[in-house]
Amino acid sequence: MDFVNLKLPTKTEHVEYINFNQKEAENYQVLFKDAQEAARRFFGKDKDALWSTVLEKLLRLRQFCNHWTMSAKKAISHDDPDYLAHAELKEAEMASPELCLKALVKRRELCPICWDALTVDNEPVISPCMHGFCRPCINQAFPSGTISCPKCSTEFDESALKETKFSDEELQADLDLDVSEFGDEISKQSSKTIALYKLIKKALKAPDSKVVIFSQWTSFLDIVERELSALDMQHVRLDGRMNGDQRDVSIKAIQNDANVRVMLASLRAAGVGITLTSADTVILADTWWAPAIEEQAIDRIHRLGQTKPTTVYRLVVKDTVEEKVIIIQDEKRKLFGEAFQETFKTLSRDVAQNMVRQLLSD
Questions:
Q1: Contact (CB, 8 A) for 263 and 282
Q2: Which of 66, 105, 199, 212 has its CA 20 to 30 A from that of 157?
Q3: Phi and psi of 194, rounded to 5°?
């Protein structure tokens, strides 16, 4: 019998801290003060303030850390009168799961499992009881395939979940890439993308190295992909918008094609069930609430079959919510692990609100 070596090569992790340029820092502070005000109203028991508004503004802060264009459109205020006037789903939308799901995404309704906004990036699905979820969240929360809706307790089979196809116009609207208000003052590259490209070039100096870049948002992967294409750097994608055949082609390319040395991967779509051991460098472009989700992604590379040492880089913008998430993870890793381990149970509102208080503190 052949001996199987179960000992993995070493894994080294680094946190790469990044400084905003002056313009980015100024615009971030405007968004941060706006988020703080939304939180102050909510935690101050303002009857018109909504939790979803706080999370929407926090989402914008997190996206801004990646690239300023991702927050170019004003965050939706769920408690704004103009929003509330159009918040009720129309009869036609309620009659069609697909139309209802599109409406929920447009309104940035929250996934009740991860407390993040429903976006195209998050592979949104809708239940028979007309509640929206991120598909990876619902799959990991109920791995058996029998689901009890976290919002209303309706029981149904996973096969009853519906998804919808978004038009190119709807996809573009969801990306929020309206950059006209910034004019020509800011270059097309953000401080984070500049740092990212430097790391890619550094890693690829070794002739047999390959890199997998994970992000929560396919809109950010789109931004990175444009630059890689401009540099004539062969790469592949792996995200929730791709069907099974397309994913298989990408995985085979990064695994077997020596000319393909970079993969851009959605953290959720590539977090489980695949092997990417041809790569030896992992770049986490943004910080997820739960270390367990990031670790699942890293384990696609650092797993049985890996023959080279693995290097992991976490990109974190200093003096932002990203840096605070890293601190919270270090201080309360056990709490995060319990909240987001393999069973992926719903994060309690008390825990989520305590996290948000810390993230938006001065």
A1: no
A2: 105
A3: -60, -45
Domains: count for the chain: 3
Residue-wise over 285-322: b if at least 16 C-beta within 10 A, else e? bbbbbbbbbbebbbbbbbeeebebebbbbbbbbeebbb
Question: pTM of the full predicted structure?
Answer: 0.78
pLDDT tens-digit readout, 193-211: 999 999 999 999 999 999 9
Element (DSSP H or E) covering residue 145: none
Distance CA 112, CA 342 (A): 17
| Same domain flag for 254 and 145 | no
Based on the fold, state whether residues 281 and 318 are members of the same structural domain: yes
For residues 95 and 27, give the distance between their C-alpha atoms in angstroms, rounded to a whole number. Answer: 41
Range of the structural domain that residue 35 is part of: 22-71
Residues in the chain: 362
**What count of other Cβ atoms lies within 10 Å of the Cβ of residue 258?**
10
* pLDDT tier, 139 (very low <50, low <70, confident <90, very high otherwise): confident
Does residue 5 belong to any structural domain of this protein?
no
**CA-to-CA distance for 260 and 67, rounded, in angstroms?**
25
Q: 226 by DSSP, 3-state: which?
A: helix
